[in-house]
Design brief:
Elements: E1 8-10, H1 12-23, H2 26-29, E2 35-38, E3 55-58, H3 83-94
Amino acid sequence: MSYKKLTKIYSQGAQVTHKTIDKLPPNVKSHIRAIVVFGDPFKDKAFNGVNPAIVHTECYPNDMVCNGLPLPVGAHNEYDKQVPAVTDWIAKTLGPL
């Protein structure tokens, strides 16, 4: 059986996703088709074993969390504005679901 799953990952969820993907075996990682993270505290850390071309990270320059400070205020709470652009990226990356 083949299926596709799409999950949006935000803030500490992005941090957990980095740690989880690091622990996945290569045969599982090979099934990942796209990763989208918003407000990622680990934005400068690659997802090990995942092609960077299928990773999209949204981090505003003035987002304190993306800059290493655990202050989820201001810009960190405004990523909903990026949904249309990210949706386009997902559609181009994944194709029809």
